[in-house]
Structure formats: C-alpha cells, structure tokens
Amino acid sequence: TQSDEARHYVQYDQGEDRWLCTLLLQRGYRVEYSAASDAYTHCPEGFNEFYNQRRRWVPSTIANIMDLLGDAKRTIKINDNISLLYIFYQMMLMGGTILGPGTIFLMLVGAFVAAFRIDNWTSFHYNIIPILGFMFICFTCKSNIQLFVAQVLSTAYALIMMAVIVGTALQLGEDGIGSPSA
C-alpha cells in the first residue's frame, strides 16, 4: 500500500522491520531473539551509512512506540506476553527518547564549564550555535552537505570531549575524588 500520511511514511517505509514487529505484537504473537538463526544483514561500514541508518531508524522507532502505546489496552488483552509493566517500560523509553537530546545538551554545557572554566551562558552559546546551524543546514541543504557537516561536527565534538576528559581528570586531581565535581 502507498503511504498517504506522514506517520505512515515514517513508520512503514523507513523502518519496515520494526513495523512488522509492532504488528506481530499487536496481533498477539511473541517476538524473541534466537541465537541459532542465520540471517543476512547489512551493517553500516562508514559514517555516511551509519548516519543515514540512524536517521531512518530513530523516527520509525518513535512512531512504532507511539503506535504500541496508543493501542496498549487492546494489545495487553490480546497478547499474553505484553504486560502493563512492559507498556510502562515503553512509556519510559519514549520519555527518555524525547528528553535525551536536551539532557545531552545540558551535559555538554556542564562539561564545557567544568573543563574550560567558562561561565554557563558562554558554554550555552558555544553549544547552541552549532546545533542551530546544523538544524538550519538540515532544513535547507542537500543530504551530502548534511552528511559532511555532521562528520565535521562529530569530529570536533570528539576532540572537545577528549579535552573535557583531560580537564575533568585535572580537576579531580586538584579537588580530590570526594569533591562535588567528581
């Protein structure tokens, strides 16, 4: 069938295997891991493949969790393997997915403050400018430019995080392991 709504495109066309699992669970089947199975899969070997895979999987995962949560009462009735505790776990997973990017941003701001001895607002600006710039690029530029900028930002943040680790280690050496910043 053709996708005629945005949610359908995200859920069906971008993560068909995850959608299949959601449908199986909603129909009363059990989905489990089998170590003895043989299957072919294509794993990303480079940054571009990995980035594109994540760009597809994250929205489809969110759409499938929302679908499962929206139909939770019926799914619990039909499927003996789905409990209220599992639905609660999925709710917590969705909450973490929504709050995760903001939490990571706040952790980056705090890491900059601790490692580079700058104030919170300066750290905030150092971190928000690349994020807003990347958002603008994602909305206005082609995929190859988005991938290039994502590679540059990933490399830059990896180097910065190495400096943060060194700064944190130095601060631990000065303040001691029992200090509040440890």
Write a concise synopsis of the structure shown.
This protein is mainly alpha-helical.
Q: How would you portray this structure in words?
A:
The chain contains 7 helices and no strands. With 182 residues, the chain is mainly alpha-helical. It folds into 2 domains: 1-82, no CATH class; 98-182, no CATH class. Helix 2 runs parallel beside helix 3 and helix 5 crosses helix 6 (120-140). The longest helix is centred in the middle third of the chain and has 33 residues, at 84-116. It is globular. The termini are far apart. The mean pLDDT is 89. Its main location: membrane. InterPro entries: Chitin_synth, Nucleotide-diphossugar_trans.
From the spread of the alpha carbons, the general shape counts as globular
- Give helix and strand order, one letter per element, not per position: HHHHHHH
- State the helicity in percent bands: over 70%
Name the structural class. Answer: mainly alpha
Number of helical stretches of at least 4 residues: 7
- C-alpha-based Rg, rounded: 21 Å
Mean pLDDT, as a whole number? 89
Main sheet record = none
Subcellular location: Membrane
GO molecular function, one term: chitin synthase activity
Organism: Chrysomya megacephala
Protein name: chitin synthase
